[in-house]
Amino acid sequence: MNELCHIRSIPSSCFCSPNSKTSQKNPRQALVKVQANRVSISMHNSEMKVPHVLTVAGSDSGGGAGIQADLKACAARRVYCSTVITAVTAQNTVGVQGVDIVPEEFVAEQLRSVLSDMHVDVVKTGMLPSPGIVKVLCQSLREFPVRALVVDPVMVSTSGDVLSGPSVLAGFREELLPLADIVTPNIKEAAVLLGGVPLRSVSDMRAAAKLIRDMGPRNVLVKGGDLPDSSDSTDVLFDGEEFYELRSSRVNTRNTHGTGCTLASCIAAELAKGSSILEAVRASKRFIETALDYSKDLVIGNGTQGPFDHFFALKNISQNSTRQDKFNPNDLLLYAVTDSRMNRKWGRSILDAVKAAIEGGATIVQLREKDVETQEFLDAAKVCLEVCHSYGVPLIINDRIDVALACDADGVHVGQSDMPAHVARTLLGPEKIVGVSCKTPEQAQQAWIDGADYIGCGGVYPTTTKENNSTVGLDGLKEVCLASKLPVVAIGGIGPSNAHSIMEIDVPNLKGVAVVSALFDRECILTATRNLHSLLSEAAKLKK
Ligand SMILES: Nc1ncnc2c1ncn2[C@@H]1O[C@H](COP(=O)(O)OP(=O)(O)O)[C@@H](O)[C@H]1O
Ligand SMILES: Cc1ncc(COP(=O)(O)O)c(N)n1
């Protein structure tokens, strides 16, 4: 076998001449180790450790599920993904036509290759088609421990074809599940693990999660994608103490092939980046919901189980659009806008306020810090961005394009007397979100021309957070919505008592409400956000 030459690329600015003064002291200097024709270069301090997920799963020739879904999910979540293939399937949108199982010795060899060398953080498993493969996997995990193990107990494909038979169950129950940090059965798989009793409701899912946890995994997520007669898509997470019901709206689409594989890979990717289990599951569920929503009209294949687009991009290409999909208008449902005076009044940091709002269900966050020094603003924006992204929530910066650029925020929101929207767009580039405050149909039309992504319309009601701000009322809001080609979020004096009247306005592009005081001028931001979120979700459902 050839000796491998293993060289990591290093920015040229980091190389030092051996004679230069800095070469002895500079901690960023490259270390070159030569061991029997094997060269490895490592960097002090400037080394970049990439979060790494290893997926142990089957190949899906149709590209929608299995290894292919895992690679796409990890890439979309910006995590490196290596692969150990357990089976090759001939599969398309109609079903599974054939399965060729990889011999367990060769699965073991692939595992050894990757785990002995490549600094894997998290292992995610999918299709494990034979008891021997389950065994070699457990042996490898004991020999090369990793930070976390995510087990997706794949048994039957969405099309109803068997991918792993009952012979693997003993290995699952006795060896693999006790090693798992989280196991993610769908309702059919949960039933099989528990001996065949079908799950028909969310309370059945809770009971199943509890029983499966008794088999040894630290957390159980029972997925409800296939729960009959449900308008929501509810998953149940049980961590041994608490149950969390994670709800999203059910996207009406045939393109759900690979959702389970993708969800488990996203969870693994978020864990590899350092998230907690709850954060990882929430961010992953959001990712699936968004991906399904963006891909609901994709047509790939003639069957009933279509794949979806992990990069949310094909839809645009198919419409010949030159603009990139980068912004989901449904994110405007509950738009939390911070206020430093309120945080000061309640003795909270911006970060604590933002965290609580996200945990309560805020779907997008804007930092509007009018009287904070630049350095402080930037520091706060950076930490808030990290938290927002761990939940899959976009972060917008009010007015300060420099701060948005410096922290690589998701976008900016500008008012009529701030930086013009077309200049903001030029400065930020095509990928970022640009929002504009508008009071009139003319301003709404201009925002569209300027390349904005959404408009904020208001103040709808009088408010104390903005001085000298004239109100437009519900009629003015409706007029602006009708004139706007962009999605609209209503702002100004909105809270639980009047959010309903806003959502009842019968215009499809009115997507939600932006709120300051009703969240941040409250003793418990989390409860205030949670209440408003459930009210808005109900109202949004009625709108559909
Ligand atoms: N139509 C849908 N709309 C929204 N979320 C969905 C839909 N179908 C599945 N999901 C979500 O996708 C994830 C995978 O669930 P599920 O489809 O039940 O798994 P599997 O692919 O293993 O059968 C879950 O978070 C589930 O709630
Ligand atoms: C190789 C492989 N692994 C997993 C699945 C499950 O995915 P789904 O439940 O969406 O059919 C699959 N169909 N193929």
TrEMBL record:
Entry-linked Gene3D superfamilies: 3.40.1190.20, Aldolase class I
Pathway connected to this protein: Cofactor biosynthesis; thiamine diphosphate biosynthesis; 4-amino-2-methyl-5-diphosphomethylpyrimidine from 5-amino-1-(5-phospho-D-ribosyl)imidazole: step 2/3; Cofactor biosynthesis; thiamine diphosphate biosynthesis; thiamine phosphate from 4-amino-2-methyl-5-diphosphomethylpyrimidine and 4-methyl-5-(2-phosphoethyl)-thiazole: step 1/1
Domain Pyridoxamine kinase/Phosphomethylpyrimidine kinase: 60-303
GO molecular function: ATP binding; hydroxymethylpyrimidine kinase activity; metal ion binding; phosphomethylpyrimidine kinase activity; thiamine-phosphate diphosphorylase activity
Biological process per Gene Ontology, one example term: thiamine biosynthetic process
Domain Thiamine phosphate synthase/TenI: 334-519
Coiled-coil region(s): none
Pfam families associated with the record: Phos_pyr_kin, TMP-TENI
Alphabetical UniProt keywords: ATP-binding, Chloroplast, Kinase, Magnesium, Metal-binding, Multifunctional enzyme, Nucleotide-binding, Plastid, Thiamine biosynthesis, Transferase, Transit peptide
Listed cofactors: Mg(2+)
Protein localization: Plastid, Chloroplast
GO cellular component: chloroplast
Catalytic activity: 2-(2-carboxy-4-methylthiazol-5-yl)ethyl phosphate + 4-amino-2-methyl-5-(diphosphooxymethyl)pyrimidine + 2 H(+) = thiamine phosphate + CO2 + diphosphate; 4-amino-5-hydroxymethyl-2-methylpyrimidine + ATP = 4-amino-2-methyl-5-(phosphooxymethyl)pyrimidine + ADP + H(+); 2-[(2R,5Z)-2-carboxy-4-methylthiazol-5(2H)-ylidene]ethyl phosphate + 4-amino-2-methyl-5-(diphosphooxymethyl)pyrimidine + 2 H(+) = thiamine phosphate + CO2 + diphosphate; 4-methyl-5-(2-phosphooxyethyl)-thiazole + 4-amino-2-methyl-5-(diphosphooxymethyl)pyrimidine + H(+) = thiamine phosphate + diphosphate
Chief location bin: plastid
Family recorded in the similarity comment: Belongs to the thiamine-phosphate synthase family.
Function of the protein: Essential for thiamine biosynthesis. Bifunctional enzyme that catalyzes the phosphorylation of hydroxymethylpyrimidine phosphate (HMP-P) to HMP-PP and condenses 4-methyl-5-(beta-hydroxyethyl)thiazole monophosphate (THZ-P) and 2-methyl-4-amino-5-hydroxymethyl pyrimidine pyrophosphate (HMP-PP) to form thiamine monophosphate (TMP).
PANTHER family tied to this protein: HYDROXYMETHYLPYRIMIDINE_PHOSPHOMETHYLPYRIMIDINE KINASE THI20-RELATED (PTHR20858:SF17), PHOSPHOMETHYLPYRIMIDINE KINASE (PTHR20858)
Name by which UniProt lists this protein: Thiamine biosynthetic bifunctional enzyme TH1, chloroplastic
Organism of provenance: Senna tora
